[in-house]
Amino acid sequence: MRPADGVHLFRDTCNVYVLVRDRDAVLIDFGEGAVLDHLADFGADRVTDVLVTHHHRDQVQGLHRAVAHGARIWVPPVERDLFDKVDAHWQQRPIHNYYDLRQDRFSLLEPVPVTGTVPEYRTRRFGGFDITTVPTPGHTLGSVSYLVDVDGRRLAFTGDLIHSAGKVWSLAATQWSYTALEGVKATVFSLYELGARAPDLVLPSHGDPIDEPRAAFDLLERRLRAYHDSRHDRPWDARGQWEHPFERLTPHLLRNTTSFATSYVLLSDTGGALLIDFGLDMIVNLPTGDDRSSRRPWLPSLGPLRRDFGVDRVEVAIPTHYHDDHVAGFNLLREVEGTQVWSAGAVADVLATPSRYDLPCLWYDPIPVDRVLETGRPVRWHEYELTLYPLPGHTLYAVAIAFDVDGQRVVATGDQQTTTWQPGERAEVLNLQYKNRFRIDDFTRSAALYRKLRPELMISGHWEPRRVDDAYLDLLEEKGAELARIHRELLPLSDVDFDAEGVGAWLRPYQVTTGPGVPFGVEVEARNPFADADEVTIALVVPAGWRAEPATATAEVPGRATETFEFTVTPTGTACRRARIGADLTVGATRFGQHAEALVDVR
């Protein structure tokens, strides 16, 4: 079948589309790979590139043949690990007592090398064709579609997003977590995303070409919304959510009501926009898993931002802290919009080198920072002046962002405090997580900062904006003092003071990748938990046959202070995964044991 001039359909375990120009072919999906035996039928001598819509085996199970053929393999960014690192996925994927229902086990059985990932929201030339990649989650979280203009017609290669008018290839694939309908909602949003690009012909992975896309999309949307509403008390306003994601807090300050965590937009009269946090836009819920393919950054809210608020460029994004739900979209913003990331120094280091840290909620990829901002010093962006202040509590690596907009003093607080509803009461909760490096007096310090800044409006990462008055500032001071008092009552701090974290050493980097016999450096930050100065000794613990230089290090450290020790570790010539090294802490005559560890891959 030939859907368009130079475009052919080959039926295999899925539909494989063959785009031919000058006897070179580009393939959309690959199936078993039998298409390689029929290239001459399509007027092609070789395949230069294979573009994959999603990771399922029926799309890609023969990819080893494409590699042997010499074709370049391009895969969706969110799903790359399910191609060239799928062996690690099979080793790590829970198989007992799991609630993660994504069809990620419908993945390749063995890894295949890939050339790279396709550039979402952008057009790149593959072979003789200019191909645009559009994120279209639904059938899988990381699915993409490809748009190609041929002879004045726009072709959309949609994978398994849609099978035919009003139908999907699999409803089971749209259930990503227990009882939820994330993939159903994502499919509707993806239909909107594709519909806005007005394809003339839709070419699915299963089924026949769809020559009336608008009617097919509308019918599927109605049926999917009916399915969703059958399981809820109130109908879902999908179109309203998609087209109007922003709440206007002031004429120049917007709140994205669809994002996780909540992001905010500061509007300049120049047409520029500054984002405070930008994690998972237009969220349909979080899958249960925590692997790379369980998180989907994309940019659907930027369309309404331009259409409704006169924005022509997203210039800057600033994080309140490093957590993935606040920064997941930063790299995509940079790649697609040219957005610069500005950050306070302590947050910037975690973003840029996440493997150094043993912290929860780290994003998978380094996020380079274009401009490191000094806390306490105002920075100008167009008509606004913003000042970042250290805001430890929820995490040590966080800031409050203060600015004036439309005559109001606003402070962005990230996830510092939360409002939770209990039956019959509203409780203000100080959002501490010990693993984020919470310290006993952090919330008394943040309460003092708020008192100094006197904001009229507080905006946070997951809760409604809050008007601030003296009673609320008093409440935060009382709760901060109460929290500190409770910790001092419960912990033996007069004898041994490891603060709230309860540990006395931190080993960095936490994750190391090196080669057999190739040395690497580590540092250990160690704490003297006693009131008086004393000798702190760190003995580095390494696997048998490895060398640590020096084996131990000692320094005089003031009371309740820290010192950093540096070591060089040389592994053996044997490859291994997640070998453990440790930092054994002794202070004076007191042995505290192996308080810190790091993980080493030798490849």
TrEMBL record:
Residues 13-206, 260-462 form the Metallo-beta-lactamase domain. InterPro entries: Metallo-B-lactamas (IPR001279), NDM-1-like (IPR050855), RibonucZ/Hydroxyglut_hydro (IPR036866). Gene3D superfamilies: Ribonuclease Z/Hydroxyacylglutathione hydrolase-like (3.60.15.10). Pfam families: Lactamase_B. Keywords: Hydrolase. One of its GO terms (molecular function) is hydrolase activity. It comes from the Bacteria. SUPFAM superfamilies: Metallo-hydrolase/oxidoreductase. CDD domains: metallo-hydrolase-like_MBL-fold (cd06262). This is Glyoxylase-like metal-dependent hydrolase (Beta-lactamase superfamily II). It comes from Actinophytocola algeriensis.
